[in-house]
Amino acid sequence: AQSVTQLDSHVSVSEGTPVLLRCNYSSSYSPSLFWYVQHPNKGLQLLLKYTSAATLVKGINGFEAEFKKSETSFHLTKPSAHMSDAAEYFCVVSDLRNAGNMLTFGGGTRLMVKP
Amino acid sequence: NAGVTQTPKFQVLKTGQSMTLQCAQDMNHEYMSWYRQDPGMGLRLIHYSVGAGITDQGEVPNGYNVSRSTTEDFPLRLLSAAPSQTSVYFCASRGGGAAETQYFGPGTRLLVL
To answer: Which end of chain B is more exposed for a tag (fewer CB within 10 A), N or C?
Structure first.
């Protein structure tokens, strides 16, 4: 079975400071890992994904994440937060064994950006 | 290319009523799925389909029914609505394998009174 834990339900940063959103996963097989962002009253947009290529993955809007197998982590970072980054972020795992399209979502981290 | 579309955007039901949430995609994706989003719980899979005529249950299937008669459409039916089904519902699709990007619709906000 696969599972995802997002370690912080809320993160607050000041504009221009770094962002760190933490995610730990559990998967029996080689996982694919994703980060999605959801702005208020909107659908989900893919930020980035890891699929067993480079362990450091760059995404849109300056975000990146590093896959660390030894720590079973896939933390999302950004060097400098913008006000437009305020949203909810979801870490997601998909087991490559799972042809049935099963994504497992973390509980989400709400990012607040202060001016 | 509209991607994944959902209708309606918002619906209010009374307990015991039935309704169908519509989902369509124009990307010729084999895989489609329905999720519900509740505060603090992320998205949970209700039902999914790996192709026309093939559906299966996800994590929280009770009270919901699906069918997949075409590649494009994947409607979700609430058989007898309950207040516990108040949620935001997202339809998603992807092509290829589990590593492929999943595309989400804009969501349907459902309130059951």
So the answer is: N
